[in-house]
Specification:
It is elongated, with a radius of gyration of 28 Å. The protein has 307 residues and is α/β, with parallel strands linked by helices. An eight-stranded mixed sheet has the order 4-3-5-10-6-9-7-8. Strands 1-2 form a two-stranded antiparallel sheet. The two termini are 55 Å apart. It folds into three domains: 79 residues, Arc Repressor Mutant, subunit A (Orthogonal Bundle), CATH 1.10.10.10; 96 residues, 3-Layer(aba) Sandwich (D-Maltodextrin-Binding Protein, domain 2); 101 residues, D-Maltodextrin-Binding Protein, domain 2 (3-Layer(aba) Sandwich). Helix 1 packs across helix 3, helix 1 crosses helix 4 and helix 2 crosses helix 3.
């Protein structure tokens, strides 16, 4: 039998946030100050709950209050319930198409080296949005992670219920500083190759796209020409610091090249991957997502096989 219409045990839920604050601070005065209410309001709320339950919730000790066993039980339940309510309200608010809060999850290297330096333009175009950029890579559950969109490289599967919008075909090739380029007589074979463990095949993939060069690297056993880093970002930073050559991915290195921190003096090739926006596939498209997609497309030109 359904208990949907059952009478709730507590007469009012309004007292619970005041009780929860008093339990947290172990003080009615501090709880009142934190909630911007009077000391009397907190005291009355606690008294109302105690009268309804028929047991004391606090031991009164001068200016301090300490939870009784019944108070501990109610406090744990109250905190869990209020936390779940706050979480639900935040998710509803953030995922509403009319919400000003717009949460973007972006691959760290792309975010730091390309997106963030350009994001001011998006702010100017859409001052009504409060953009929150969170750095993460790989597969993502947008709902559980509280994100509206994710910007990712197309190197993993995407759920069928996601909207996928490519905005840039990826190209890759060696990058270094102008000074380093001169120091190796403009010959990449003489340079130190910088690898990252997050993209361990980057050099071999590039060489496989450049006719006749694959064998050269495979036959090169000079360990002094190889350096390894934990992350793609670190390899690019090492290249920018003049430590060698890294395989730069466009548009990741676009900003660095435009500002002269890196150069790309050798061939770059289409990798077959692209950068794309992932969002929830709604019946009615989210105008905030559409605005982001359109803006990103204006920054990049897709290759023929990037769609």
């Amino acid at each position: 039998m359904s208990n949907f219409h059952r009478k709730r045990v507590l007469a009012s839920l309004n007292a619970l946030p005041l009780f929860e604050a008093a339990a947290f601070f172990e003080s009615f005065s501090k709880a009142a100050h934190s909630l911007n209410v009077t000391h009397g309001a907190v005291s009355r709320a606690v008294s109302t709950l105690e009268e309804r339950l028929g047991v004391p919730l606090f031991y009164r000790r001068n200016r301090r209050v300490v939870l009784t066993p019944a108070g501990v039980l109610l406090h744990n339940a109250t905190k869990e319930s209020l936390d779940r309510l706050d979480d639900a309200v935040e998710k509803i608010h953030r995922h509403s198409v009319s919400s000003p809060f717009f949460v973007i999850s972006c691959e760290p290297t792309l975010a730091m080296r390309w997106l963030l330096p350009k994001l001011g333009e998006f702010y100017r175009l859409h001052p009504e949005l409060n953009v929150d950029v969170r750095m993460a890579g790989g597969p993502i559950d947008l709902l559980s992670e509280g994100c509206d969109v994710a910007i990712r490289r197309s190197d993993f599967g995407v759920p069928d219920d996601y909207r996928v919008t490519p905005f840039a075909a990826e190209r890759a090739g060696p990058v270094c500083t102008a000074a380093y380029f001169k120091s190796i007589d403009q010959d990449w074979r003489k340079g130190t190759r910088l690898h990252s463990r997050t993209r361990p095949m980057a050099w071999k993939d590039w060489l496989s796209l450049v006719e006749g060069e694959k064998t050269i690297l495979q036959n090169d056993s000079d360990a002094s020409l190889e350096r390894y880093f934990d992350h793609f970002f670190y390899a690019l930073q090492a290249a920018q610091s003049g430590l060698g050559m890294a395989i730069g991915s466009y548009p990741v290195v676009q900003q660095d090249i435009e500002e002269g921190f890196l150069i790309a003096p050798w061939d770059d090739e289409l990798t077959g991957h692209c950068y794309q926006v992932l969002s929830l596939d709604r019946l009615t498209p989210d105008p905030r997502v559409i605005a982001l997609e359109n803006w990103l497309k204006t920054l990049c030109v897709l290759g023929k096989d990037g769609s």
